[in-house]
Amino acid sequence: xxxxxxxxxxxxxxxxxxxxxxxxxxxxxxxxxxxxxxxxxxxxxxxxxxxxxxxxxxxxxxxxxxxxxxxxxxxxxxxxxxxxxxxxxxxxxxxxxxxxxxxxxxxxxxxxxxxxxxxxxxxxxxxxxxxxxxxxxxxxxxxxxxxxxxxxxxxxxxxxxxxxxxxxxxxxxxxxxxxxxxxxxxxxxxxxxxxxxxxxxxxxxxxxxxxxxxxxxxxxxxxxxxxxxxxxxxxxxxxxxxxxxxxxxxxxxxxxxxxxxxxxxxxxxxxxxxxxxxxxxxxxxxxxxxxxxxxxxxxxxxxxxxxxxxxxxxxxxxxxxxxxxxxxxxxxxxxxxxxxxxxxxxxxxxxxxxxxxxxxxxxxxxxxxxxxxxxxxxxxxxxxxxxxxxxxxxxxxxxxxxxxxxxxxxxxxxxxxxxxxxxxxxxxxxxxxxxxxxxxxxxxxxxxxxxxxxxxxxxxxxxxxxxxxxxxxxxxxxxxxxxxxxxxxxxxxxxxxxxxxxxxxxxxxxxxxxxxxxxxxxxxxxxxxxxxxxxxxxxxxxxxxxxxxxxxxxxxxxxxxxxxxxxxxxxxxxx
Length: 575
Known about the structure:
Blueprint (H helix, E strand, L loop, with lengths): L11 E5 L2 H4 L5 E6 L8 E10 L18 E10 L4 E4 L4 E3 L10 E16 L5 E4 L16 E2 L3 E5 L3 E7 L1 E2 L12 E7 L1 H7 L4 E7 L14 E5 L31 H16 L8 E6 L12 E2 L3 E2 H16 L9 E6 L1 H12 L7 E4 L22 E3 L4 E3 L1 E4 L5 E4 H11 L8 H9 L21 H11 L1 H16 L3 E6 L7 H13 L8 E5 L14 H4 L3 H4 L1 H11 L13
Parallel strand pairs: 2-11, 15-16, 15-19, 19-20, 20-25, 25-26
Antiparallel strand pairs: 1-11, 2-5, 3-4, 3-7, 4-6, 7-8, 7-9, 7-10, 9-12, 13-14, 14-16, 17-18, 21-22, 23-24
Helix pairs in contact: 5-9
């Protein structure tokens, strides 16, 4: 990576601070909003980052594993240009919990203000949250956030450092329509009413071959759920760039993975245009919320009616605009991880509106295995108890079982990034989706973020509303016939986040239920990590690039078996 150059002047003021002023040798950092920005009365989360690595900006070096650099956070309200905020030994940090005792040395320092907006909710509450600005709820790249270029200092005990944040992250240019991919954005009346302001849903739509030439055709719909897509991913109409420099993928330990991605995207295009390939509409949905890069696609006390808005506003709009069938038998759901949970959850909550889900490595689908925590029986999410000691609960592993983070550490980082479930990270969005709304208008905590002590009342609310295995078991007499043949779940048995544990529990229920039998599929990848999706022939780094084609044979079989009498099975095949 290209080495960055860091400049000290004029952004930084660096001085020694004597003990008569502070009576401590701990460092103090003051962050000031530049006068040149002419900003007045802004709210948000102010973040201070210190790094010993100068190969990239500190804001891109924060993670929930052992490689993370240092970050500290605080709320700010009504901050104006020229005003300072002070980080001292009381500031909450990660992975160091405090600045107290920070080792001397050379640090590259950056501050960033993650800006909040005020929402007057339909529930009567007033909350302050970060609005998505086209980036998919990423605090370190969100347009409108204020930051400084990194500065370098040789930090000594007792030093006081002033950092001026003087740059604004620019707006994002939206993608343009092409022959194959169209982009839509609609105002959701349901969501706008809940949030007290205009709220929008979007989608990237992949059109089938012959769409313009066959105006008589109407098409089935494939809904690819997942994290915020900036554009329709994995589709490329030209061969891989011959001049592309190969890049190493640390996650998969594969050299030239960027080239592999382009090859797979081009191969998908070539399959898409084959004469005998089934003709579908495929959509990837944009539904970021003020809490995360997507809504989890269900109605929620804290996020509003996203499930109804997607199913009853967005999808009918797309089907009308692009000649979709517009019937439940012709709609299919698939995705991995967050998208895997969404595919299954939407199928369960809207059983008549969709005709099958393919859920790969889904987020916990049984909260008795909320990763490694049973939220109904365990007292604490962070520690295994013992008479004379306690052991931290792991949060992430590799296929050999090597641990790289714990649940406590991951939640500590989230708390630094934002309180009230406002970090924009994984455990917080589960709270924002599953929890009841608190008296303050924010999600109620499933557990104390500092101690890990579980709130049993909140856990019971989760159970009744979002524990998918429990809901299926509770309501199988009503749901069984509607879901027969529609549930397909895939997971690696060494999933990095222990998601396979909940899949085992779901499988136990599905396979033991015979009235009716679910008549679907649950499958596991041997030693496969996150996010295995049912492919026993190829490594994970390949199969994860083939979501848009790997379930097509099963979808076609499902259509043939379940389409109602008189259904259109010919126009979209151009027969």
